Structures are given as C-alpha cells and as structure tokens.
C-alpha cells in the first residue's frame, strides 16, 4: 500500500515539474508541487526521474555555461571546472575574466531519484555561480548605471556621494559637483532622472533649488545652475515639474528677468528657457506662472534686453503662455500691442511682430485682430528700420491670407498709386537722370560706390558724405519697394482691384520706375512685377507693348538684360511715349 502511494507521489511530482524543467525556468515551483514533493520525501523509496527531465536539466546547465563565456575568447566556461575571477569589493569592478568567484563548486549532476534532482536544482539556484554578473555588466557607474551594489544602483550611489560633497563643500566645490553632474548625465543614455538616479535625483534637486535662491543676489554660477535645471526638465517628468513649483524656485527664476538683480542677458535667456520648459506641461502650469506675474516680468525683460536671442526666447515664451490659456490671452495680447508702439526700439517691435505672425499662422488670432493691427502695421512700414518694415509687410500678407481682409487695404493701395502717379518731381527726376547719363556727365551714385568698394573698406565709404547719402537713398528705395510689393500682392488676389488700379495708372507708374536709372534697386524690383501684371491684365499688356515696342526689351528678365537690350535713343523714345500716354490720361 505504501509502495503504491510512493509511485503515485513520484508520478505526480514529475508531472507537476515537467513544464518547469522543459522550459529551463529558474522560478520556484508552485505550492502544489512543493507539497507533492514533501509527500514523496516522507517515503523510503522514490522512483527514478524520467530521462526527459534529466535532459532538460542538462540543457539548462549548458545555457548557463554559455552565459558565462569569457569576453576574450568567447568560449563557454564550465560551471564546475573553470577557475573563478576574484571580485574587488573596494572598487566594485569585475576581474578581467568577467566571472564571479566560483570557489564554492557547483554540486555535481545527480543520477539518482527525482528528489535528488529537486534538491540539486534548489542548491544550484541559490549558488554563487548563478548570482554573478555577465562580463559586459561590470559595476562601473559610467558604463553601466543599472549595475547594483547592495541593492542600490551604481549611478544612485555616485549621486549620493556627490550630494555629500555638495553638502559639506564650499562654493567652488559645489560648482565642481554641478559640472561633474552635467558630464555624467551627458555620458548616460537613459530616459529619465528617476530611472537614472532613483530617489537621489529629488534630494539633489531640492538642494539645487535652495542654493539658486541663495546665490541669486550674488550672481554666482547662475548659468551653470540654470543648465542643470534644463537637464532635469529635459525628460518632462511630472514629479520633477511638481518639485520646481513646490520649492518656490519659480519666483527666483522670474526675478532674474527684471532689473532688480541686473542679471546678464545669458542668465535671462537661460531662465526664460527653464520657464518655457515648465510652461510646456499644460494649462495648469501656465495659469500658475501667469498668476505669479510672469507676463509683466517678460515684458520688462524684452524692453530692457540687449541681445536678440534673449528677446526672441521671451517672445516665444509669451506665445506658449497664450496657447490653450484663455484666462490670460487678453493680457498677453495687450502686451504685444504695447510692444508695437512707435517709440519702442526696433528689436522690441520685431519681437511683437514675430509673435503675432506665429499666432496667426497657428490660427489663434481673434476676429478683431485685422481691425486692430492693420493701421499700426501700415504706420510701421514708414519707419526707418528696414527689418521692422519687412516684418510688417510679411505679417500684413499673413493677416490678409488668414482673414481674407483684402478690402481693408484697398484704400491704402489706391493712395499709394495716386501719390506716385501724380508726383511731378519723380517724372522730372526721370528726365534729368536720363539726360545726364546720355551726355556722359559721370556715373551714378551707385556706380561710384561700386567702384570705390574695390579700393576702399566698406566702413570708410559709409562714413563719407556720399556713403551717408547713398544709405538714405537705399533706405527710401527699399521702403518704396515694400509698399509697391504690397500693392501687387493685393492686385494678384483681387481681379476687381487689378482692373481699378490699371485704370488709375498702375502700369505707367511701374514703367516710370523701370526707366529711372537713378534708382537701380527700384528698377530691379519693378521688372518682375511688370511681367506679372501683363499676365493678370490684358490692358496692362497692351500698354507695355505699346510703350516698350522693341522685342528685346519686352523679353528681358533681369535688369542687366533690359539695360543691354536698348540704346540711349531707344530709351529716349520709350520715355517720350510714356510721357505722351501720361499726359493723355491726365487730360
């Protein structure tokens, strides 16, 4: 009766252990299996284990031997015969062979009963041979941050050691700790501070935020500290963002933007970048930042900043605060309008124009924006800074494309055309410049400047009276080209406006600018517009063909081709026909 019970128990144990042995699993058997095994151990005789289980155990041992391959020879080391490498307990590094100390030999493979096999399996599972690290997983915190020593990651231990140095060191030592931290993170390849340093990351961040508030009045190592903040926020971990707000360092970051601490533009730019990273975490963070006064702080930073990079970053942060933040959108819009006022510096105006353009392209603009912005943008196009004029023109075109508000600019186009078409001085200047060039009374101002550039430095030419006059002339030509480009932009969008402007003398005005050799910049800009106008209006094409007549002049694409296609007599006849047409229209 007992022998039959023994057989049943042995078979039950074998059936329960078969999935574990065949899969080579190193996990503990289930409770039912252990109970059956204990029942089998109580008997005196146990039936031998089947050959299938024995082969599975042999295969598992072979796999473990292959995992312990030496990196130099790539040959497997036996669990029971290879010499062991000694572990350096002080440096936490593996010996060259890459295998742990195997002096505690692995028990030999049993050839007896199933209970002996189970005992051997439990013994080998708990042996030191199975608990070693592979050669490529050496305990070096820089090459393997995930290696563990006494339950802690090596990177965590590294940061813990540096935190102690930070706590006990002076300012120079703390600065060195920050530099080492940046270098360490740069060499790692993990995807988060918590993954790399675990809880030590929050301990270190708490010390950094406190030290920043202390060193802010002293202006000590602020760029370095802000770079460390950027590294913490790079992985966009919610716990890190929460720590920034709870520590109160956000208020210290805002203080760097105003003139109270007189921080450099580099510090302001880095502080704006840190605040931008915080604002990227959603509407709640944006509302908290705005409620603490970030908008007026950014406005003061833009008005007082000197470098374009700082002003540009501040403008981008204002745009980010505007997005998905309806509670403070009106305040930000008023800020942008105040930055566009005529007495502001050109750099400040460009920041507002860039911000408005970005929001219009992203369809954040309100329906009242065209009525509010178009008059101010047209006045900016008459300014002295060409970059502001160019940005205003670009923004006007974007505004028209987004809102289809062409009709709001039609009156401006008619006024521009009438002012140039009825400018008697411009027509007289055309004749005087042409006669002087025909008589050979000397090159034009642009030609003289080009000749002097070959022999003199550019700075010397700009300081000369002739250079100053040429600069003013070029600025006036550029402003005229921008306004004329806006008129042509509206003409191409509306056939009705195109017919109206052609009847008002748009074609004749463009031809007059093309023949004015005293303004080469204007000539080069007008020639392509004449070709476009001929495609838009049949009457404009008839006027151009009737005045230029000569085929080479009609086919010229560039200004050089146009000037080389005709002689002085040809251009004189062209001017005569143009004056006759202009007088006929005036009558």
Protein architecture, described:
Helix 5 packs parallel to helix 8, helix 6 packs parallel to helix 9 and helix 26 packs antiparallel against helix 31. The chain is mainly alpha-helical and 587 residues long. The protein is elongated. Among the domains are: 136 residues, no CATH class; 140 residues, no CATH class. The N terminus is likely disordered. The longest helix has 29 residues. Helices cover 69% and strands 1% of the residues.
Task: Give the SSE map.
Blueprint: H1 2-23, H2 31-41, H3 51-67, H4 114-125, E1 148-149, E2 152-153, H5 154-168, H6 171-187, H7 193-197, H8 200-215, H9 222-233, H10 238-247, H11 249-255, H12 265-279, H13 283-291, H14 294-304, H15 308-322, H16 329-339, H17 346-361, H18 369-380, H19 386-403, H20 407-421, H21 424-439, H22 445-453, H23 458-463, H24 465-493, H25 495-503, H26 506-515, H27 520-536, H28 538-548, H29 551-555, H30 559-565, H31 568-586
Antiparallel strand pairs: 1-2
Properties at a glance:
587 residues, two-stranded antiparallel ribbon, disordered N terminus
Instruction: Return the average pLDDT rounded to an integer.
Output: 77
Helix content: 55-70%
Major sheet: 2 strands, antiparallel
As residue ranges, the low-confidence spans are 1-50, 68-115, 124-143
Output the structural class: mainly alpha
- Could you give the count of β-strands? 2
The end-to-end span amounts to: 135 Å
| Major sheet strand order | 1-2
């Amino acid at each position: 009766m007992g022998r039959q019970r023994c057989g049943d128990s042995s078979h039950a144990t074998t059936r329960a252990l078969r999935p574990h042995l065949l899969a080579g699993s190193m996990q503990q058997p289930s409770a039912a299996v252990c109970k059956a095994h204990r029942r089998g151990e109580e008997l005196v005789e146990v039936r031998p284990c089947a050959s299938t289980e024995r082969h599975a155990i042999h295969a598992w041992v072979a796999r473990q031997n292959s995992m312990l391959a030496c990196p130099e020879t790539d040959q497997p080391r036996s669990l029971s015969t290879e010499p062991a490498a000694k572990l350096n307990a002080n440096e936490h590094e593996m010996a060259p062979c890459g295998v742990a100390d195997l002096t505690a030999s692995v028990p030999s493979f049993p050839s007896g009963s199933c209970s002996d096999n189970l005992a051997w399996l439990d013994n080998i599972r708990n042996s030191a041979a199975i608990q070693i690290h592979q050669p490529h997983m050496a305990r070096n915190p820089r090459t393997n941050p995930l290696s563990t020593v006494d339950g802690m990651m090596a990177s965590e231990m590294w940061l813990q050691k540096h935190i102690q140095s930070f706590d006990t060191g002076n300012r120079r030592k703390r600065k060195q700790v920050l530099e080492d931290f940046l270098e360490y993170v740069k060499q790692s390849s993990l995807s988060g501070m918590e993954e790399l340093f675990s809880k030590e990351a929050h301990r270190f961040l708490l010390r950094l935020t406190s030290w920043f508030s202390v060193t802010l009045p002293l202006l000590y190592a602020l760029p370095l500290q802000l770079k460390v903040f950027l590294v913490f926020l790079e992985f966009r971990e919610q716990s890190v963002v929460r720590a920034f707000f709870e520590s109160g360092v956000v208020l210290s970051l805002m203080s760097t933007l105003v003139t109270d601490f007189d921080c450099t533009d580099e510090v302001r730019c880095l502080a704006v970048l840190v605040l931008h990273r915080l604002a990227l975490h959603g509407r709640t963070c944006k509302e908290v930042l705005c409620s603490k006064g970030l908008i007026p702080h950014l406005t003061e930073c833009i008005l007082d900043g000197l470098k374009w990079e700082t002003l540009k970053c501040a403008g981008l942060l204002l745009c980010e605060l505007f997005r998905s933040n309806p509670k403070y959108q009106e305040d930000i819009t008023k800020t942008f309008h105040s930055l566009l006022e005529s007495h502001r510096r050109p750099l400040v105006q460009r920041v507002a124009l860039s911000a408005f353009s970005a929001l219009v392209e992203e369809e954040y603009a309100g329906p009242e924006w065209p009525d509010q912005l178009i008059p101010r943008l047209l006045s900016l196009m008459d300014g002295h800074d060409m970059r502001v004029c160019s940005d205003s023109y670009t923004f006007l075109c974007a505004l028209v494309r987004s809102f289809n508000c062409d009709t709001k600019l039609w009156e401006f186009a008619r006024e521009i055309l009438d002012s140039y078409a009825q400018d008697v001085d411009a027509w007289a200047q055309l004749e005087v410049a042409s006669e002087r060039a025909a008589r050979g009374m000397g090159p034009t101002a642009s030609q003289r400047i080009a000749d002097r550039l070959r022999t003199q430095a550019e700075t010397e030419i700009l300081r000369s009276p002739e250079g100053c006059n040429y600069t003013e002339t070029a600025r006036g030509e550029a402003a005229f080209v921008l306004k004329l480009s806006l008129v042509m932009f509206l003409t191409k969008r509306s056939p009705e406006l195109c017919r109206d402007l052609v009847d008002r003398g748009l074609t004749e005005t463009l031809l007059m600018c093309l023949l004015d050799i005293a303004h080469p910049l204007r000539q080069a800009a007008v020639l392509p517009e004449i070709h476009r106008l001929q495609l838009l209006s049949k009457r404009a094409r008839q006027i151009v063909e009737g005045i230029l007549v000569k085929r080479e002049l009609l086919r010229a694409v560039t200004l050089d081709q146009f000037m080389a296609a005709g002689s002085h007599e040809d251009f004189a006849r062209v001017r005569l026909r143009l004056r006759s047409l202009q007088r006929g229209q005036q009558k």
